[in-house]
Amino acid sequence: MSEESWASTIGVRKSMQANTGRDTKPELALRRAVHALGLRYYVNRRPIKTVRRTADLVFPKLKLAVFLDGCFWHGCPEHHTVARTNAEFWAQKVATNRRRDADTNERLKADGWTVVRIWEHEATAVAAARVAAAVTAIRSAPRT
After folding, report:
1. Terminus of the chain with fewer CB atoms < 10 Å: N or C?
2. CA distances, 61 to each of 3, 20, 28, 47, 135 (Å)
3. pLDDT (tens digit, 9 = 90+) per residue, 109-124?
4. pTM of the predicted structure, to 2 decimals
5. What kind of architecture, by CATH, is found in domain 22-81+89-139?
6. Residue range 39-82, pLDDT digits in tens
7. Gap between the Cα atoms of 64 and 138, Å rounded
């Protein structure tokens, strides 16, 4: 391996490079389920154009941003596993992701957005119902 590579082996590097940033199986399942509930949304879009953060589902008129977080990448309290190789690197990576997630939530909420965060391990129907409940709550809230 190159001195500059973050990966511990060539196999790990190839595996990590194969991970996609969007259209994962959990994302596709959630999108299908939310769509089946009659809801329409944008995919993989920045809720606030000037902030370089992308939500998985965005309902711009409702100011609702939905993030589907991977258990490993975002440090799920139930399912996050500690990497056996390069443990310090991965611990820092996950900690950075968690800080960025919290910052994203704060920025969006400060701009009047509702944020829904879903863990990849959540049942698709339950996650879709959470999204639908957020949509209903926003639509039924008194306008100011």
Report:
1. C
2. 48, 28, 22, 10, 11
3. 999 999 999 999 999 9
4. 0.84
5. 3-Layer(aba) Sandwich (3.40)
6. 999 999 999 999 999 999 999 999 999 999 988 788 888 877 77
7. 8
